[in-house]
Design a protein that fits this description.
mainly alpha; Arc Repressor Mutant, subunit A; 58% helix; elongated; 7 helices
């Protein structure tokens, strides 16, 4: 996926400034595709040059003028073209799993600490989904009138929730399968012949 197409999709709901687009990213697309404010502004300029957007300037007394971006017919055609393309499969890159793969070469306590940090991160993520993102979806549907689209926003939320729950379940199973650090030579090891069990 490319940033221009994500911006086209958001602007297709309603015109917005670069700052407003960044705020929307932070509460939605950020969880599976992030972008900084400079990247957004740079991309918007490129999209304007390609004819996908046009800009209106809103002057404000005592404050900087606002540049509001609107999708053009050409931009909508480009969005539809991209949406109709075959899915792009995610690249299998995960630095955390590389550390797990070489876990036997790591200090055992550090290995457990990595898993605990991963566990904490995804627990916090799940909490954010429930407390922050669900209300954002409801509010954005009200603001844009895109109530039918909200179903699809919730599908991405459901994917994120299920993935976080899976990681939490996996961390718990791996941590419970480690030997106590005082056993044997005082090193945490995966218990031999003990598979990592998953909750049913």
């Amino acid at each position: 996926m490319s940033l221009p197409h994500a911006l086209l999709g958001l602007l297709n709901y309603r015109p917005a400034t670069g700052y407003e687009l960044k705020a929307t990213f932070t509460n939605s697309i950020h969880f599976f595709w992030d972008a900084t404010l400079p990247q957004i502004y740079r991309t918007l300029k490129q999209m304007e040059g390609s004819g996908w957007l046009n800009v209106t300037v809103e002057h404000q007394d005592g404050r900087p003028s606002r540049k509001i971006y609107h999708v053009t017919d050409m931009g909508r055609k480009e969005l539809q073209r991209w949406l109709s393309e075959p899915l792009e499969m995610p690249e299998p890159r995960n630095a955390m799993l590389i550390k797990v793969f070489f876990g036997n070469q790591m200090d055992p306590t550090q290995f457990a600490t990595h898993l605990e940090e991963l566990q904490k991160y995804h627990a916090t993520l799940l909490e954010r989904y429930e407390k922050e993102i669900i209300p954002v979806i409801e509010r954005y549907a009200e603001v844009t009138g895109a109530f039918r689209d909200a179903r699809y926003w919730n599908l991405t939320l459901d994917f994120g929730r299920r993935h976080a729950e899976m990681v939490l379940d996996w961390c718990k199973a791996v941590l419970s399968s480690l030997d106590h650090p005082k056993q044997g030579k005082g090193r945490r090891r995966l218990q031999k012949n003990r598979p990592v069990e998953r909750k049913r």
